[in-house]
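Fold these two proteins, one after the other.
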Amino acid sequence: MTRTILVVDDEEDLAVTCQRLLNRRGWHVTIVGNREAALATLARTPPPVLAIVDRHLPDGDGIDVLRAARAIDMPVIVVTGQASRAMRRLVLEEGAAGFLGKPFSAHDLLELVRVIVGDADGAAPPT
């Protein structure tokens, strides 16, 4: 069974690039562009195994999505164009499993996904 990653970003080019990278690694990717759609996706059964969430969404704060995902024990990687130390500290204190500043490299994204949730085939993350 293919495991799903949710990508929440209103920058379509970035979301599609993430989707292509993750698809090549065997992941199924669902893309949504706003907070409301992300929250609806988190309510599905089974939920995605990981969410990659932009900090700033057109209809609200990505931190709301982070909190909802953490409430169901889903790890979250927060991405943002405002990659300050204060922002990093904020999202990590809110429970994010990872943080990437935009623009980020394909290698950094794929490595962070692997460390947090392992491989698409269900292989455990490295210890």
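Now the second one:
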Amino acid sequence: MQDLQDKPLSYIAQIIRADWAKPSPYAVQYIDAMAQLRSIDDNYYADTAHGVVCYFLANANGWRGDTARTVKLHLKRLAGLK
């Protein structure tokens, strides 16, 4: 997988959609929100991108595999969780 460092959140949402065959309905709303965001400093209506990413991670326990591990680690770092 390529380096995600300079990729916008919308690009990461595309990776998630392509890799996660059946995301949970709870995760889908946060994937959709990330698809509208560029950086962790953006806002999605009244929510911050930071909040969107954190809620996605909280609802992404069912997403597994190498891509999932790479993306989740990147998102945790972006959100300052790791």
